[in-house]
Amino acid sequence: MGLEREVVADLDSDAPVATHPTLNTVDFGLQIGVEEILTDVDPDISLEFLKKAEAHAGKPPPTRVPRKTLVSTHNSYVEQQQNAGQQNAPRMVKKVVLALSYPPSVKSVSDLSPVSLTSILIAPSNHADALQMRLDELLVENHHEDKCVILRTITPPYKGAGTITIVEDEFGNTDKLALYNQGNSTILQAVPEGSVILLKEPYYRFSGDDDFMLCVDHPSDAVLLRHGPDDSLIPDSFKQAPRSHAASEWRDAGDQAFISKDLPLAAANRALEFTPEGNKAFQADLLLKLAGIELALNCFDSALSDALASRGGPSDWKAYFIAAKASYELTEFQVSKEYFESALKMKPEATNILKEYERCLARLREEKGNYDFAAMTLDVTPKNIHIDKASFLSRTEVRDSPHHGRGIFATEDIKAGEMIFAEKATSVPNEFNPEHNSAAAYAQLVELCKDNPTIHRKVLDLYGGTYKRSGQEGTIVDGKPVVDVFLLESIRRKNCFSGAHVSAQAANPDWDMWKQGMSRGLWVYSAYANHACLPNANRSFIGDMLIVTATVDIPAGTEITHIYLPPKAAYLLRMPQFRHSWGFMWRGEVSPEQHKKRNEALADIEAIIRKKRPTRFYPDAAIRQIEKLTNRLSALHEPEVYEDLKLPRLMLIWPTMWLVEAWHTRKQWNKVVKWGNEVFRNFGFVEPFRNGRLWMYKDTQAVTTFEVIKALKLSAEAYTALGSKVLARDCLDAARIGLTTMVGFVTDETFEAFR
Questions:
Q1: Taking 60 as the threshold, does the pLDDT of residue 253 lie above it?
Q2: pLDDT for 739-750, tens place per residue?
Q3: Which residue range or ranges hold the SET domain (predicted)?
């Protein structure tokens, strides 16, 4: 029972299967976006595993693997990975379990007790005692607050969902370390053997039978210590022989690292630390090099600041060029334009600068709403949805909502079918498998926020559910912003959208979410829009551009709303989804007893029409049987709820749409018109006609799916056959608006092709 899609073997092969419009695969992720398969939840963890972890919590591990065994086992895995040529393969992503979250450290190293690996577990009576504690005192499933541990890696890294290596403390005790979410801008993403690492307030995890490890999820909790500047923190047994302090040698080493594509090492070069204060020209050259490396690593904030700090010499045009490109990537296109113009004043003949400048001017035009949507679709490929476009947000603003926190409001009058806003994704990966794109979206968002405080601040401003914040997220501690990966995941889950590569292509009945894939990501501005069961806007996708279109005429000052979940005939199924995924309760009041009766009535209809294609010719008596059952189902909808509150009657959509198509096959045009009107009413257009004219997409907030558009086109054909050309034109005009709200744009060809 219900609205599951199913294939019936004895159906005609030359006609489309009668499916529930409310769960038509075409509707997945188009104007609505998130279904059960697209809803983010914690991955399943066995109760047995959790019980074992709880049994070990707060205790030392019952067994400890000897150093020799740890190293040999680890190295065998590394060797297998290298022999298979997988060391440079795309990295897997660790799936996040919010139920097992812990906070990042918000303390400076100077505020932590620098102790050995063996002393991070049991609070000592004094610091001297802490330094003497043994490794076998390590506590499982424990977050060692107010402590830090300094370790040296003694093996090459194994690169999987994280970077796993074997570490030792200054006393020779060993254990496993797993580093996650470090990203490509730091050498810690593949920490080499011999590196010295400081972990802030480390966490020691149970990871299986007789398997325990230090686990670092928050990128700001791990610090790579440098020989020389950090010698005061590095144990004597870890210190290396003195190295060159010549700035020129470190600069050359950085250049060589860049050439060999070892960008994290290049970014970590220490030339600036050894540059004499008076040597401004040399310092400017180094800052400019560093800015270029940071730009290549997608560290746009630091690239911008270092480029501007390098100014003061003949290479200032390069500084402005890098600053312009960094501002461009931060979507600050007006600022980018000004930096490009400064670069061109100094280097007017530079064709590469001029080319980038023209790109920037194109983005500024798009910020005014000037798009060629048809051309944009050609830039989207099955493997890459990222297109070079700007957001258009000037018709709206974010402010407090009288309903739910903040919302998006129109700043001018907007007509139905017009674009309200369009937004370039803040973060969306090129991973389209619905089972994997959630983890990929998380990993990309963490890296983006870690490397770009400007973007991090925008993301942190979003609703994060019940996850407890410290208030220190994003603050700079020890030169690094505090990044709480579990908070970012909670924000992502509460605010992400999913969609087809191109909504217009997904309007094809043959489109399949599993074959063509779905993108999943974060559009920060769009996330402020609140849910409404009867919205005034639909969203669609062209690549990583999210387009929001008005479904009614919207006066200035009106809040923009959309649907968070596909419209479900079974309203009781919506409740837990709203509560679980977005943290609010649906306020609709419908009798569960009546709802049960409607389910039973729908089941009676299902039993018949699942096996009857509406495009086949049936005798009038067979169709009237469906009409009778449909009228019975209609009578079970409480007038005080559905009529007085003007709510959609979603359970009636499938049978009424079937009747429209069945009577269309019989060319019974009056019947097509009658049941077409019922389809419109059931979607929420409670008064589709006024004064003898169609009155849809005017001032009635309702639900639109592709079935509405199909019913409008069939009704237009019926009105034409009946000689009502004005109403036929009204239906076609409304269908065009409806299709525009679903896919973002419509051409004469695409409108004609839609069936």
A1: no
A2: 999 999 999 999
A3: 394-565
Answer yes or no: do 633 and 503 share one domain: no
pLDDT tens readout for residues 146-195:
888 889 999 998 988 888 999 999 889 999 999 999 887 777 888 888 88
The reply to whether 396 and 520 lie within a common domain is yes
- The answer on 217 and 196 residing in a single domain is yes
191 contacts 223 by C-beta, under 8 angstroms: no
Q: Is residue 670 part of a domain?
A: yes
* pLDDT for 576: 47
End-to-end CA distance of the chain: 28
* Cα gap 678→653, rounded to integer Å: 8
Dihedral of CA atoms 543, 568, 617, 751 in degrees, nearest 10, equals -30
Q: How many domains does the chain have?
A: 4
**Mean pLDDT, all residues of the chain:** 83
Q: What tokens were used for 373?
A: 């949507």
Query: Distance (Å, rounded) from C-alpha 50 to C-alpha 56?
Result: 10
Work out the angle at residue 520's Cα, subtended by the Cα atoms of residues 514 and 524, and round it to the nearest 5 degrees: 165
Which domain range does residue 721 map to? 21-28+583-753
- Tell me the CATH number at 203: 2.40.50.140
Instruction: Point out the domain boundary residue: 238, 273, 308.
Output: 238
Q: How far apart are CA 600 and CA 632, in angstroms?
A: 11
The reply to whether 266 and 394 lie within a common domain is no
What DSSP character marks residue 55?
H
- Tell me, yes or no, whether 359 and 385 share the same domain: no
Q: Which residues pair with 208 in a beta bridge?
A: 211
With 0-12 / 13-18 / 19 or more C-beta atoms within 10 angstroms meaning exposed / middle / buried, residue 466 is exposed
- Provide the pLDDT confidence category of residue 29 given band limits of 50, 70 and 90: very low
Structure token pair of residue 250: 């470190």
Is the residue at 13 inside a domain?
no
What pLDDT, on a 0 to 100 scale, did the predictor assign at position 545? 98
Q: Considering Cα of 636, then 641, then 643, then 644, what sign does the dihedral take?
A: positive
d(CA 447, CA 426): 12
What's the rounded Cα separation, in Å, for the pair 134 and 140?
15
Same domain, 54 and 180: yes
CA–CA separation, 70 and 63 (whole Å): 13
What DSSP letter does each residue of 170-204 carry, written as one string? TTS-EEEEEE-S--TTSGGGGPPTT-EEEEES-EE
Tally Cβ neighbours within 10 Å of residue 48.
8
Taking CA atoms, 378 is separated from 110, 215, 548, 549, in Å, by 54, 44, 20, 21
Tell whether 669 and 745 lie within a shared domain: yes
Pair (231, 325) in one structural domain: no
* Element spanning 479, H or E: none
Beta bridge partners of 690: 693
